[in-house]
Amino acid sequence: MTASAPAPDVVRRLTALLPAGRVLADAAPLAAYESDGLTAFQAKPLAVAMPETQDEVVAIVRFCHAEKLPFVARGSGTSLSGGSLPFAGGIVIALNRLNKIVRLDPAQRIAVVEPGVINLAVTAAAQPHGLHYAPDPSSQSICTIGGNVAFNAGGAHCLKYGMTSNHVLGLKAVLATGEVVEFGGASREQIGPDWTGLFVGNEGLFGVALEITVQLLPRAEVFHTVLAGYRTLEEAGEAVSAVIASGLLPGAIEIMDALALEAASAAVHADYPPACEAVLIVELEGPREVVAVDRVRLDAILAASKPVEVRPARDAAERLAIWKGRKSAFSAVGRLSPDFIVQDGVVPRRRLGEALRKIAGWSRELGVRCANVFHAGDGNLHPLILYDGREAGALERAEEFAGKILRMCVEMGGSITGEHGVGMEKRDYLPDMFNAEELACLKRLRAAFDPHGIANPGKMFPAEGAPALAQHGLHPLEKAGVISRE
Fold it and tell me: Which of 193, 227, 335, 462 is 20 to 30 Å apart from 10, CA to CA?
């Protein structure tokens, strides 16, 4: 920072905005905020502000705008793309204390929540009314709605229900300029541009959501969850194609390969069919009569796919056990490797088998293990690339592997991200997906909401340099050495 704005003075004036004890600036407490779910990147912020009210968030953002001070809004820090990595010389706005469910209207089937509300808490509050909140990322027991909005989170059931953007009806936010805006409302019937849809998935580059209005859906009357084991990943992939081609629309279709199964078994004692290279999880849900008919069709399709074994869940406990194994897969891989990268590319469903063959080939070629877990129904791959950061060159090989996967997704007509966002991890691959004119349009859009470029700087766009960062003598992260990589 410049001599005109020394760091201690900025922290002192920031501290004056909040009650005592709610601005952290000492090294020890700041260490907890140096990284998010992508631990390969680390950076130490100047300070962490912990507001408890929406007005306090607005005051902090307006302070940052006046000072041209970079800021990053953060919830639980579960981002797997480095999306909530702090900016050295900037501040973190920790939103966990804005955790109120402001209103839940079962008649209108909506909930109005603050950004720090945990995803699963919305469903817990809605369940007594026979309702639930559909987006269910694997981290739903700890991730926040604000983070889900920023990165347009999905989850296992997004095949049927869609992403976060399909469930956010309106929001109140403070833009990076300090302006407080309200987009959308409690109804899907809106007039004019879809500002809510534009804001969802902005990765924190526009500002900070203060209140989010989400739709609630009736909880399914019955579930039919099946776990099928296959000798090869390709056979499991072909079974997915057969299910989709039949016209069935399951709530979820998931695949886990042998390495992911090994990890889940060790972590939560999940029980899977032996001698399988992959398992397929298919879940039907809905009215009892509809599921009864669809179940017969699904059983016939799976039987024709020649599985090693098919295990329908006999009760709610067995269903929960199946999903516990699937949702623990990311963290469970930590039992197999000290470090790993979770990728998030998307390929057309018809090319799943080809994509998996390529990934297996690169794994052998680079000598890097890879566990595959993915939302098979919509082609959203989650390869978990295992490495040991203590070994020289291990992270570089893992990143080379990840890069090959992302470029393959684009070449196949897919996307570099399905639900984790671009963040830090995939920003250098954005030009593989968009041409120069498209990137320029995206940057103009960002500048309309944040002319100083202070909101979550350095994310999404390759080697981004914003006016405010240049003014403070700050430059793209790697060149300035403001992040470290371990």
Answer: 462
Residue 23's φ and ψ, nearest 5 degrees, are: -130, 120
3-state secondary structure of 74: strand
Question: Which residues in the chain are classed under CATH 3.30.43.10?
Answer: 7-96+442-485
pLDDT in tens, 321-359: 999 888 888 888 888 899 989 899 999 988 888 898 899
Residue 86 to residue 346: CA distance in whole angstroms:
27
* pLDDT exceeds cutoff 80 at 480: no
* Cα 211 to Cα 146: distance, rounded to the nearest angstrom: 9
Cα–Cα distance, 394 to 469 (Å, whole number): 32
Under CATH, what is the fold of the domain 337-422?
Answer: Alpha-Beta Plaits (3.30.70)
Q: How far, in Å, CA of 171 to CA of 474, rounded?
A: 32
Fold of 7-96+442-485: 3.30.43
> Which CATH number describes the domain made up of 101-218?
3.30.465.10
CA distances from 242 to 107, 136, 158, 374 (A): 39, 25, 19, 17
Taking the C-alpha atoms of residue 110 and residue 167, their distance in angstroms, rounded to an integer, is 10
Which residues belong to CATH 3.30.70.2190 in the chain?
Answer: 222-327
Q: How confident is the model at residue 188 (pLDDT cuts 50, 70, 90)?
A: confident
The CATH number of the domain covering residues in 222-327 = 3.30.70.2190
Distance, C-alpha 131 to centroid of its chain: 23
C-alpha 479/C-alpha 471 separation (Å) is 16
d(CA 139, CA 122): 14
Q: CATH 3.30.70.2740: which residues of the chain?
A: 337-422
